[in-house]
Design goal:
This protein is α/β, with parallel strands linked by helices and 341 residues long. It has seven helices and 16 strands. It has a seven-stranded mixed sheet, with no helix packed on it. Strands 5-6-9-10-12-11-13 form a seven-stranded mixed sheet, with helices on one face. Strands 7-8 form a two-stranded antiparallel sheet. It starts with 10 loop residues before the first strand and ends with a strand.
Length: 341
């Protein structure tokens, strides 16, 4: 298994599914590989685990909805996590690849839930059990499952900042427009991350010397017009995140997200950043929005993928490029993006 990393800023290009830069083989690219995904039912066959291993990853990142519990009983959630750990394909991944990640609403325990969820403390502990954390891990004694992970290779360093968009998130604003569930609330009111997590994130980015900084959010950050859960329901929080990234001076910041049962690339030119801010959404692993017929996203690059898939990021430190791929069953590349940083 590979053990390496990379950084990048300046331009991007979306490529057709099978095209590659001249003279490069798909297998040869990259010094460090991240795989990630979300929206996984433990009792539905996941045909992608062998493809995850075939991508030769250095880490697997759960983007949330690892199981579909939707219960306030942590014991029931724990039983589903135990069943997930026994899924043969996932067991094979656990034996070969480090696993980190966050939760979303269905493994949190409450659909579209946030700060109001009464069983979040117990839910947090069984989630941390699922990740295999020691009893003295700091996340055992604090609110929220956010965490920082560093991967150091001779060629460079990657920092992965896993956010918790559930534990502190305040109430959503019901939509007035037919066909939508939520709409942006009053600017300046409400929060996605809460004060403590915001302070932590600002410090992590400000003090990072990593070549790439990957932020994992269970819900989308950039896409905000679909009327479901998104950071865009708290527009001031999006502005704060972008300002935090700019002010920190952190290199090669990338956002990974899930939740939507579709996969897509979103990209935004942020004042003060020398590279576009990319939000790579990968969802879902066992079930998708198969009847998808279109929705607006002013930041979208390329086409929406509504097939079961997972995300791959291949980092090359010497050329300072990242290859983003949406990968389906049998390793089919359903969408890809190259970004120079």
């Amino acid at each position: 298994m590979k053990k390496y990393v990379f950084a990048i800023p300046i331009f991007f290009c979306f490529l057709a599914c099978k095209s590659l830069p001249t003279g490069e083989s798909r297998q040869a690219f990259g010094d460090f590989t991240i795989t990630f995904g979300s929206c996984n039912k433990h009792d539905v066959r996941n045909r992608l685990w062998d493809d995850v291993l075939a991508a030769n990853p250095d880490v697997w990142i759960w983007g949330g909805d690892i199981v579909y519990a939707d219960t306030s009983n942590p014991t029931e959630i724990a039983a589903m996590y135990s069943a997930q750990r026994e899924v043969p394909g996932y067991k094979a991944v656990l034996e070969e690849v480090p696993v980190i990640g966050t939760w979303d609403d269905h493994d949190y325990g409450l659909n579209d839930g946030g700060v109001e969820f009464v069983s979040k403390e117990g839910s947090q502990q069984v989630f941390l059990d699922f990740l295999g954390l020691e009893e003295n891990d700091p996340r055992r004694a604090r609110e929220g499952v956010y965490a920082s992970h560093e991967f150091i290779r001779p060629e460079g360093k990657i920092r992965v900042l896993v956010l918790d968009t559930r534990y502190f998130r305040t109430a959503l604003t019901p939509a007035e427009e037919k066909g939508k569930r939520y709409q942006p609330g009053t600017y300046g009111e409400g929060t996605v991350l809460g004060n403590a997590q915001w302070s932590w994130l600002e410090g992590e980015l400000r003090n990072s010397d990593a070549d790439f900084n990957v932020i994992v959010s269970s819900i989308q950050v950039l896409s905000s017009q679909h009327g479901f859960e998104t950071w865009g329901n708290f527009p001031h929080e999006v502005d704060r995140l972008e300002k935090t990234i700019v002010d920190s001076g952190a290199k090669g910041v990338i956002i990974l997200s899930g939740d939507r049962h579709i996969s897509e690339f979103s990209s935004s030119a942020v004042d003060g950043l020398s590279f576009p801010l990319i939000d790579f959404t990968s969802s879902g692993l066992t079930h998708v929005y198969s009847s998808y017929s279109g929705e607006p996203n002013r930041y979208r690059i390329g086409e929406v993928v509504s097939k079961k898939s997972f995300g791959v990021l291949e980092f090359d430190f010497s050329t300072k490029r990242v290859h983003f791929k949406i990968v389906g069953d049998h390793g089919e590349v359903l969408g890809e993006l190259w970004q120079q940083y």
